[in-house]
Amino acid sequence: MDFLSDIWNKAKKLNKTIVLPETEDQRILKAADLILRSKIANVALIGTREKIEEDCKKIGSDISKALIIDPATSQNLDRYTEIYVRNMKNRKHEVSFNDAKDMIKKDFLYFGALMVEAGDADGMVAGASHSTGHTIKAAIYSSGLKPGISTLSSFFVMVLQDRQFGSNGVLFFADCAVVPDPDAKQLCDIALSTAASFKQLMNKEPKVAMLSFSTKGSGKSPSAEKAALAAKMLSEKDPELMIDGELQLDAAIVPAIGKKKAPESKVAGRANTLIFPNLDAGNIGYKLTERLAGASAIGPIFQGCAKPINDLSRGCSVEDIANVTAITAIQAI
User: Fold this and answer.
1) What pTM was computed for the model?
2) CA distance 35 to 37
3) How many CA atoms are closer than 13 Å to the CA of 315, on its beta-carbon side?
4) Which residues does 232 contact at the CB level (< 8 Å), separation at least 6?
5) Residue 298: phi, psi to the nearest 5?
6) What residue spans of the chain are helical by DSSP H?
7) CA atoms of 27 and 319, how far apart (whole Å)
8) What three-state secondary structure class fits 321?
9) What does DSSP assign to residue 274?
10) Residue 21 and residue 285: Cα distance in Å, rounded?
């Protein structure tokens, strides 16, 4: 798969350190072995050395080159606790130092996220054995959001067998996993973040379509108006970005239909970044594309975080973990 080969090759050149905190999960330990052997990143594992090495011995994983950190004995625990307490105070939520320290020592996702926030690691990948909500909270409470972004969202990279669509068969879908019913401002944030993600990972110009059942006013509804307003807001925020909406899916990705339905558009028929009006549409859309079109779905990948912290499906494979690690390493540039 060309996209993943490119991502792995880019990651290998960066020498980034990615935290994998869920060492109680054998898939994480197997993925750490794969990541280290493939040299796509350095790995930091969170837990007790004796337990991790014992588990690795049972499954035949070589993590001898990984950094292993036990939060209970870490010399950085107090420093991370101070960062967390300060960040929570900035969010108007007071938490005592001792309560925070006890929580961070026990919750490896928070410890890992604070490692990233403190600059002791470049990114974190978690979610194999924790909910998306847990991973999001660890990211937000430890690092917060990027300047100018008020919405944490996610995207999927969809790699199609039919290469006539998107960018040589690659499309970015958002948001398919995080924000249930975004308003126009949130939709604008999602589109802005996804465009930046596309440019960073693909090294190409994003062509962003705000999707709807309507094209350019052909149908009327609050949802269609929301997509059109978000497109307008984003054009004002970034006049150089190629964006249009609202557009129906076929008008967005099929040149002949795009030319017919939106002849003045620079995006219609050529979109490579698809922004869905809500989570229902996004989640259904990516799964339809995956199951009926035989596309590979890579993600969900978080975007909008101040630091690269990503989620995994709890049904993820070892290869999925390695792929998300490679993407996280690139996000850390």
Assistant:
1) 0.91
2) 6
3) 1
4) none
5) -110, 115
6) 2-12, 26-38, 49-59, 77-90, 97-106, 108-118, 132-142, 184-202, 222-237, 249-253, 255-261, 279-292, 318-331
7) 9
8) helix
9) E
10) 31
Give the chain's domains with CATH numbers.
Answer: 2-144+305-331 (3.40.50.10950), 153-297 (3.40.50.10750)
162 burial type by CB count under 10 A (0-12 exposed, 13-18 middle, 19+ buried): exposed
Name the residue among 216, 221, 229, 238 with its Cα closest to residue 187.
229
Single-letter residue type at 152: L
Parallel/antiparallel/unpaired status of strands 273-275 and 242-247: unpaired
How many Å apart are CA 171 and CA 299, to the nearest integer?
12
**pLDDT tens digits, one per residue of 108-152:** 999 999 999 999 999 999 999 999 899 999 999 998 999 888 899
Residues 6+ apart with CB under 8 A from 151: 145, 179, 182, 185, 186, 189, 190, 193, 304
- Residue numbers in the chain where pLDDT is lower than 50: none
- Spatial CA neighbour of 205 closest among 267, 289, 268: 267
Neighbours of 65 (CB within 10 A): 13
Structure confidence at residue 1 (pLDDT): 56
| Amino acid present at 65 | K
CA-nearest of 311, 316, 262, 275 to 133 is 311
